[in-house]
Amino acid sequence: MPDVALNIKVKDGAIVEEGLSYVISSWDETALEAALQITEDVGGEVTLLTIGPDKAAESLRKGLAMGAHKAIHVKYDEAKESDSFAFAKILQKALEGRNYDLILTGKQAQDTDAGLTAPMLAEFISLPQVTNIIRFSDVSEESITLYRKGDHGTEVIDMNLPGIVTVNDSLNEPRLASMRGIMMAKKKPLEEIELDSLDIPAEMRGKQGSMTNVLQFEKPETRKEGQTFEGDEADTVKQAMDLLVSESKFLA
Hints:
Layout: E1 10-11, E2 14-15, H1 26-42, E3 47-52, H2 57-66, E4 70-75, H3 84-95, E5 102-106, H4 117-124, E6 129-137, E7 143-150, E8 153-160, E9 163-167, H5 179-185, E10 190-194, H6 233-246
Parallel strand pairs: 3-4, 4-10, 5-9, 6-9
Antiparallel strand pairs: 1-2, 6-7, 7-8
């Protein structure tokens, strides 16, 4: 997805594609690190899965360089026009007939801040789910213990596997890819799947397959420059208080 740390330009209600840099979402990078830690502890393989145009492969290669074992790329040029519902349906199709013990994702998207795809997918493929985890322990072939941020404190949940988990970005600090990892990533398997091969009907693609529609993008208002007061403390405090009352109505 687009690197939201960069200056994203908006023109005529749309994001300017030229010059955008695409990266792994920080939330998903945290999920990848968790998956790598689990396999280092109890064994297994980490398979990456993404949906998007050709340039989405760059993020997969980075994940392979971090230590993932293989990757799957569902090639979909209209991905930016889809929403969480459509992505969950495509993932459901892509996962049919595959074996997995645990599906890990970030708790939300980095560009839209939606946190719906994984929970929807869990419903579509009838798997237990736990969202927003901040810690995990006691991983076995049958279950995992999860700690999540709840409304009234930390909730501790034992979940049978297979299952779906979304992670909070406080869970860990993702590792950096080493030079050796980058070189090895070039030799790791990256399976490409054309969307047509998944038998996704036309009414489930692009805007037609989305339950929501983005009308337009708008740049947030530029924050006004702050004001500096110089002079004696008694005078500057009075000036600041007068402005808080008369202009900002903060203390009115």
